[in-house]
Specification:
By secondary structure, the chain is mainly α. The protein has a domain of 99 residues. Helices cover 56% and strands 0% of the residues. The chain has 9 helices and no strands. α5 crosses α7. The longest helix has 21 residues. It is rod-shaped.
């Protein structure tokens, strides 16, 4: 019996340590340096303090943006133009005017004078500059569905005629009158080329006959 216990004790002493004792300790995610002097990284290789640092800077940026910029500062000049409110108001007025024209042009023959008034107001107050158009002509060519020639003629009608007389005469006859003014008052018949007259001279009559 004693011999059996001695053999068992010998076998127990000869057993090598299991691999469980060699298991590496879990990696730390606390961000602190380990015993070897290397910095431990968090998830996806980023230091744990990086998220806190970014959140702090984002909060500071939001706080600065919420504060009104100092007059004359670079931030005030870049982010807030001097005439920003005026530009916004002109853009709103321009969009309202375009909406009116869109509704009136459904019956152009009846509402041509009102459209001319709106276009004249856009030109006088230079609303087209709010949309970066260099001129009123460029604006009506791109933004008005009536066409550049028709839009400019409607503005001229408002300048040249009273509303009551213009409505009584009608848009087509007013356009014809403007065309006649542009052509120097010549009629359509006078602008048709005539056949050249013969330049052959008749023989002179002998004297005394």
């Amino acid at each position: 019996m004693a011999k059996t216990k001695k053999v068992a004790a010998t076998k127990t002493a000869s057993v090598k340590p299991s691999s469980a004792g060699k298991t590496a300790p879990p990696k730390s995610v606390s961000g602190k340096d380990d015993a070897g002097g290397k910095r431990k990284l968090g998830l996806r290789g980023a230091a744990p303090w990086a998220a806190r640092h970014a959140a702090k800077h984002a909060a500071e940026a939001r706080a600065r943006a919420a504060e009104p910029p100092l007059p004359g500062s670079a931030r005030a000049t870049i982010r807030t133009p001097v005439d920003a409110e005026d530009i916004k108001e002109r853009v709103r007025d321009l969009h309202a005017a375009l909406a009116q024209i869109k509704g009136l042009r459904k019956n152009l023959a009846k509402n041509f004078f009102e459209i001319g008034l709106i276009l004249k107001n856009i030109e006088a107050r230079k609303f087209y500059e709010a949309k970066r158009f260099p001129s009123f002509e460029a604006f009506v060519e791109r933004e008005i569905d009536l066409g550049k020639t028709t839009a400019l003629r409607l503005v001229r009608i408002v300048r040249l005629f009273q509303k009551e007389a213009a409505v009584e005469v009608g848009m087509d006859r007013l356009f014809a009158a403007i065309t006649a003014l542009d052509s120097g008052g010549e009629s359509e018949a006078s602008r048709i080329p005539q056949a050249p007259q013969s330049t052959t001279s008749l023989p002179m009559r002998p004297p005394g006959r």
